Amino acid sequence: MEKYVINGGKPLQGEVDISGAKNAAVAIIPAALMVDGICRIENMPQISDTDMLLTILTQLGAEVRMICPGTIEIDSRNVRFCDAPFDLMRKIRASYYLIGAMLGRFGSAKTTMPGGCNFGVRPIDQHIKGMNALGAQVDVRNGFVYAEAEGGKLHGAKIYLDKVSVGATMNIILAATMASGRTIIENAAREPHIVDLANFLNSMGADVRGAGTDTVKINGVERLHGGSYSIIPDQIEAGTYMVAAAATGGEVLVKNVIPKHLECISAKLRETGTIVQEYEDSVLVKGNGHLRKANVKTLPYPGFPTDMQPQMGALLCMANGTSVITEGIYDNRFKYVNELRKMGADIQVDGRIAIFEGGAKLTGAPVMACDLRAGAAMVIAGLCASGKTEIEDIHFIERGYENFVGKLRKLGAGISIVDYPDEPELHEKVISIG
Ligand code: EPU
C-alpha cells in the first residue's frame, strides 16, 4: 500500500503542464469502439481510469498501441461482442459509456452498473430514458445492464433530459452517432468535455452539432472512419493547481490550458484576493498569503464545477471570514470535511450547505482521501499545513491526476509516495470507487 507524505508550509513556485482531460478521455476511449479504422489519440492522460478503460477495450478485442507517452492508437476493427471484464467496469463510473458505444457498434450491450465516487445516489435513469427513446430495450438486473436495439439498430429520436447530466448527454451522443436518422437532445449538459467528444466523433466522420449548447443534434451516419485527435486539457486538473498555488501563497504558471474553461475558477479565486492573469494557453496564479472569504455554489457548466468544490473548501477554511459552499449537483459531497477537521478546520455541514469559519491554521495529521477530488483537497490542505500530513487511499487520487506527486515536487512541494504495510482487515472495508 502507498500513501502520500507531505511536509507542508512551502508556497508552490514555477510552471506546471496540464494533461488531457480525464472526463473527455473516458468517453473518447469507448467511442473508439465504434470506429472502423485506426484512431490515433494524443494528449491521453495517463491515469488509472484511462488504463482500466483501455484494458476493457483490449479484452473486447481492440488493439491498443502506445506510440509515445500520451499518444495511443486504438484499432477496433476486430472487436467482437463478448462479455467485457465486469470487475473493471464495476470500478469506474465511465463504464456507462460502453452502453452507448456497444449499442452503436453491435446493437446490443451488456455492462455492469457503473461504479463511481460515492456522493450519494447516482442513478442512470436519464441514460436509460435516452436509450429507450432511441429504440433500445434496457433491463437492469442483479447489478448488470442489458440493452438491445429493437431490430438490431437504433433510430433517431427527440429526447428532453429531465436533469442536466454530463454522462447521459455524452452516452446519448455516442448511441445516436450511428443510429438511423436524426436525434435531438434538449436540456443537454454543456461541459467542455461534451464538445470534445463531439469533435472527436466528427473528426472520425460523425455529424454531431450544437455540443456546448443545451440542444445537441446528431444526424446518424453509417460508419466512422479512422483519424487523429488530440484531447483538450483537463479543466479540473488545471483548477486544482490554481487553487493549490493560491492556497499556499505561491506563484504558478499553469500551462497547456484553455483559459475560457477556467473562467469560473479564475473569477472565484479573484474574489479571494488571488491574482489570476490569463494568457493564450496558460494562466498565472499569484497568491499573496491573505485569502478573503468567498461563497461558492456548484452548478453545471459554465457554473462553478462540483469537481472543484472540495479543493476550494480546503482553501476557504484558511481564508479570512466565513464562507458558504452550496453543493448544487450531489447530495453528499462533503465527506472530506471530517478529514479537514482533523487538521484544525472549523466547518459545519447541513445537507448540501457547508459553512467554513475561516482563518484556520492547519496542522499536519494522518487523513484519508475519501474520493478523487476529496483526495486532491487533502493534498492542498497538507501543502498549506505546518508539519507532516499523511494521506491514505491515494488510489482514488491516481484515478484522475497524472503524475500528481512529480508535478507538485517540480513546484517545490515537499510531497513523496511512501510504502506502508497492508493491514489484512482493510481488505474487509467496503470501498467505493468512481
Ligand atoms: N443524474 C440523475 N440521473 C441520471 C444521471 C445523473 O439523476 O441518469 C443526477 C446525478 O445523480 C447528479 C446530477 O444528475 O446529481 C449530475 O450528474 P451527471 O450525470 O452530470 O454526472 P456523471 O456523468 O455521473 C460526470 C463526471 C463527474 C462529475 C459530473 C458533474 C465522468 C466520468 N464523471 O459524472 O466527475 O462530477 O459529471 O460534472 O465524467 C470527477 O471527475 O471527480 C467526477 C466525479
Write up what this structure looks like.
- Helix content is 30%, strand content 26%.
- By secondary structure, it is α+β, with helices and mostly antiparallel strands.
- A four-stranded mixed β-sheet has the order 21-22-1-23, covered by helices on one side.
- Helix 4 (97-106) runs parallel beside helix 6 and helix 10 (309-316) runs parallel beside helix 12.
- The chain is globular.
- The two termini are 19 Å apart.
- Uridine-diphosphate-2(N-acetylglucosaminyl) butyric acid (EPU) is lined by residues 22-23, 26, 93-94, 117, 122-127, 163, 165-168, 189, 306-307, 329-330, 372-373, 400.
- Residues 22-23, 26, 93-94, 117, 122-127, 163, 165-168, 189, 306-307, 329-330, 372-373, 400 line the site of uridine-diphosphate-2(N-acetylglucosaminyl) butyric acid.
Overall geometry = globular
Count of helix runs: 14
Gyration radius over CA: 21 Å
| Stretches with pLDDT under 50, minimum 5 residues | 426-434
Q: List all distinct small molecules, including ions and cofactors, that are bound in this structure.
A: uridine-diphosphate-2(N-acetylglucosaminyl) butyric acid
Percentage of residues in helical conformation: 25-40%
| Widest sheet, order of strands | 21-22-1-23
Determine the N-to-C terminus distance: 19 Å
Strand content: 25-35%
Number of strands: 23
Average pLDDT number: 94
Strand-pairing-aware structural class: alpha+beta
Q: Main beta sheet, described?
A: 4 strands, mixed
